[in-house]
Amino acid sequence: MNINSLKLIAIFKLARSFMACGFGCVFLYLSFQISIPDTSLFPKFFGAGTDVMLVRQGLGFIHLEPKELFFQSSLVFFILCAMRLIEAIGLWFDQNWASYLTIASALIYVILATYLLNQKFSWVTLIALMIALLISAYLVIRLIKKNLELNE
Questions:
Q1: Widest CA span of the chain, in angstroms?
Q2: CA gyration radius, the chain
Q3: Which of 7, 68, 88, 123 could be cross-linked to 64 through a Cys-Cys bond (beta carbons 3.0 to 4.6 Å apart)?
Q4: How confident is the model at residue 72 (pLDDT cuts 50, 70, 90)?
């Protein structure tokens, strides 16, 4: 089994962790601003317009002030950052639990991305979906081979 490919995935996860941390910092900064113009700008930070039904329904149930919304979103991004960082460290050291965690988080993203693609096609979403599927498929095959080697 090629350990270098796992380290490449770990570096990719680390980059995504830093990106989530950056978004978390931006949203935390926005939550402490004195005036935030409008919550209709909120979906645009995620690359989705208000015509995406999932975003519209999700924001419709949230009855928060814009500052609270940005603060809670920053917490979500910081949690995502921590999760990606844990995945990256585990994959770097070739831990099985990290592979399972990566597969589970990728499957959650696959469900969300498929829904978003059904609502409105986007090349960025499609490419991100394909990357998540390729990484998940590679890790599943790698885990199967590893378990078969252990059983022999």
A1: 64
A2: 18
A3: 68
A4: confident
Tokens of residue 51, six digits: 């015509």
Query: So what's the pLDDT on residue 151?
Result: 83
Containing 14, the helix (H) or strand (E) segment is helix 3-31
Matching residue, tokens 């095959």: 141
Measured between alpha carbons, how far is residue 3 from residues 11, 77, 152 in Å? 13, 29, 21
* Token duo for residue 49: 């317009």
Distance CA 142, CA 149 (A): 11
Residue type, 20: A
**H helical segments located in 65-122:** 66-92, 96-119
pLDDT tens-place string over residues 82-111: 999 999 999 999 898 999 999 998 888 888
d(C-alpha 127, C-alpha 129), whole Å: 5
